[in-house]
Every structure is written in C-alpha cells, then in structure tokens.
Write a structure and sequence with these properties.
Belongs to the LysR transcriptional regulatory family. This protein is an alpha/beta fold. It has 9 helices and 12 strands. The radius of gyration is 23 Å and the shape is globular.
Length: 288
C-alpha cells in the first residue's frame, strides 16, 4: 500500500476550518478563496479515502475519520511551526521577563514556555506569577517585558485584547459539600483578598439579584481558593481555566448570570526585539 504524505498547507486549512467553525472564515484567515479551500478539503478526503466532514445544520463537523485526522493534524502543525521557529531563531539570545496570573501558570509555563525553550535554548525567561494589580504595576514600572492580565479597565500604552472567557460559579465536585443559602444563612463566598475583579463581579451580581452573601474565606493565592472550595467552605467565581478535578461549574438557575472577562497581553515596548516578539506570537497562538 502506498504511503500517504499529507500536505501541511492543506492540513492547516482543515484544522483552521474546524477550530473556527467555518471554512469561509478559514479562507479569510489564511488568505485563500473559498473555492481553493474546498479543493483542498476534497484533496484531503481523497488522500484519506473516506469523508472527513459531515453536515450539521448549516455547518460542518468532522466525521470519526475527521476527528482522528484533526488530532494528528494539530500535532503535525505544532511540530512544523516549532521547527520553523527554531530554524528562524536559532541565533536568538537574550532575557525575557514575563508576568501572568496564577490561572495561566500551569498551562503557559508547561506548554507555551516549553515550546519556546526548545526552539530558543539561548534565551532565558524569568516568569513572575502575581495578581493583576501587581502585574500592571510591574509592567508600568518597566520590570516586565510581557504580561498577561485580566481586563479590569486599566490599560497600558502597548496592550492588546486577546479573547474573553465566561466566568462561572464554582463549587466542590461533591454535591454534599456545596453550601446552600437562606435568608438566615447567607451564601458563603470564597475569594481572593481585595482588590479582585472576580470577587467584585460575584458580589455585584449577588447584590443585583438580592441574594444575601458573606465572605467565608479569603486567600492571597489561587491554590488557597481551590482548596477552600473543595473543602466545602463556600463557592467562588472564576473562569474554567485550570479548574481542578475536585471542583465543578455550578449549574444553578437561582444564581445570577456573570459577565465575560477579557484577557489582555501587555508589552513594554511598541516594537520589542525578536525574542520577545516570538514569545508573544506563541502566547497568542496558544490562547486565541
């Protein structure tokens, strides 16, 4: 049997179309015509030997073969992009100071920074995990080159909005550990020490809904928040990023809706050097 050699440009079109939920959007993103995209998908199906897409309403979803191809396609493209970055930046050297909230510490440090370090071993990264206020202070005082922060109405001269995340009410995975509230027993909240964007959103939403609450536990660290909620001390408001297995999103219609929370990437300089720019690109690729 002849071996199949996939065209990575075609694979990128397929993966992008699935991730954007539209091959018309993929065509626009990749700078191709819709007819060219259709021809690429047809070529891919011919190589696979079976359909990789199926109609679902007005859109398209991957078939079982398409799901398998999607998983491998993502890995192929990631390795290709990592190899291209390593070749282009083989001589990059320097030092980058990066700041981020605890929510992204595990994902960014293990995935994105791992990819970056393999491609650019001569660049040293100093990572700072801190609260929003501290990160913005470090950014404005010139002590960070790049910083991820939640959008709280404070901007810096060189910042860009990356995306928005829904906020959720979060409680212990064990329903028996989830607290209830009555007029005599206000809803117990677990939150960061003030000031905290998500704490403010939680209390404002409860006040608008006329739901009594009390601060049952506060902590300066996210691990402390997670531990208190898992122990049943109360519920909290976070995004689902980094949500531990012993916690879950609470689906309770009695709790008020919460707004979306934006994420921004700040850079110290308008035109950073090549090393900082490359790290910025990898972060944006991972999060957007």
């Amino acid at each position: 049997m002849n071996k199949i050699t996939f065209d990575l440009d075609v694979m990128r079109t397929f993966v992008t179309g699935i991730e954007l939920g539209s091959f018309a959007k993929a065509a626009d993103r990749l700078g191709r015509s819709t007819s060219a995209v259709s021809a690429q998908i047809k070529k891919l199906e011919e190589q696979v030997g079976s359909p990789i897409l199926r109609k679902a309403g007005r859109g398209m979803l991957p078939t079982a073969a398409g799901e398998t191809l999607l998983a491998y396609g993502r890995r192929l493209l990631e390795l290709n992009d990592e190899a291209a970055a390593a070749v282009r930046g083989v001589d990059l050297e320097g030092w980058i100071r990066l700041g981020m909230p605890e929510d992204f510490g595990e994902r960014i440090l293990t995935d994105v920074l791992g990819r970056f370090a393999r491609a650019h071993p001569k660049i040293r990264i100093e990572a700072k995990i801190a609260r929003n206020t501290s990160l913005l202070d470090l950014m404005t005082s010139g002590q960070l080159d790049l910083a991820l922060t939640w959008d709280g109405g404070v901007t810096t001269p060189h910042s860009e909005h990356l995306r928005s995340y829904p906020m959720h009410w979060i409680g212990a995975a064990d329903p028996l550990l989830q607290p209830t509230n009555t007029p005599e027993d206000p809803l117990p909240l677990v939150a960061f020490e003030a000031p905290c964007l998500m704490r403010s959103c939680a209390t404002a939403a409860l006040d608008r809904a006329h739901i009594p609450w009390r601060l049952a536990f506060s902590s300066p660290s996210l691990s402390g928040i997670w531990s208190a909620v898992a122990a049943g001390l109360g519920i909290t408001v976070r995004t689902e990023i980094g949500l531990p297995a012993n916690l879950r999103i609470i689906d309770n219609p009695a709790l008020p809706d919460l707004p979306m929370l934006g994420l921004s990437l700040h850079r110290m300089e308008a035109e950073p050097d090549a090393a900082i720019q490359r790290l910025r690109e990898i972060i944006v690729e991972a999060l957007v």
